[in-house]
Amino acid sequence: YSGQVAALTLSGIVTPDVFLILGPNHTGAGSPVSVASKENWETPLGEVNIDAVFQKDFLKACAGSVEDDLAHANEHSIEVQLPFLQYFHKNFKILPVCLAVPSLAKLIKLGEQTAECIQKSGKKVCIIASSDMNHYETEEITAKKDKEAINAVLELDEVKLFEVVRKYGITMCGVAPAI
């Protein structure tokens, strides 16, 4: 369902040094902040390299982050972005991070540490937060709930997003990456 949105969005981005792709952990396996440890990921369009230097910087800067492939093993939220990136961009690297952090305070702290890591790296980094939105309800209800969450995202208000998702029971699996 999201292919058209992903294509339109990712085609309009100027290629950065690294795409930091944050995805939710649907399975619950692995660590709360699981950084992929492999050197590359493979798709039908070829290999995508992980930025090893940025990976080490991220692991050092972000408390609680660990190299952990278990969370990535059966997770689709990050890898689904890769064919779009490969189609629209050349010569880029990624850092896949799978999140299962339930605490708003910990997510805010992780966001601050990530921002500091990016600044210190001197790299051009594009952050992609992979998520679906509300599901399993009528189109009318879903449209209203999605609008509430999207407005909080557009306002760059992580507290409001967290509260809106909880208040309205929005089944947005990628709320942690978005925050």
Commentary on this structure:
The protein is of the alpha/beta class. It has eight helices and seven strands; from the N terminus they run αββββαβααβαβααα. It has helices at 3-11, 52-61, 70-73, 82-88, 104-121, 139-154, 158-168, 175-178, and strands spanning 18-24, 33-35, 40-43, 46-50, 65-67, 93-99, 125-129. Strands 1, 2, 3, 4, 5, 6 and 7 form a seven-stranded mixed beta sheet that branches. A hairpin with a 2-residue loop joins strand 3 and strand 4. The chain is globular. The model has no long low-confidence stretch (mean pLDDT 93).
Blueprint (SSEs and pairs):
Layout: H1 3-11, E1 18-24, E2 33-35, E3 40-43, E4 46-50, H2 52-61, E5 65-67, H3 70-73, H4 82-88, E6 93-99, H5 104-121, E7 125-129, H6 139-154, H7 158-168, H8 175-178
Parallel strand pairs: 1-6, 1-7, 2-5, 4-6
Antiparallel strand pairs: 2-6, 3-4
Helix pairs in contact: 2-5, 6-7
Low-pLDDT windows of residues: none
The separation of the N and C termini measures 22 Å
Form type: globular
Mean pLDDT, to the nearest integer, reads 93
Question: Hey, roughly how much beta strand do the residues contain?
Answer: 15-25%
Major β-sheet, in short? 7 strands, mixed
Helical content band: 40-55%
Radius of gyration: 16 Å
Find the structural class using helix and strand composition: alpha/beta
Count of separate DSSP helical elements:
8
Q: State the total count of DSSP E strands.
A: 7
Taken in chain order, the helices and strands follow as HEEEEHEHHEHEHHH
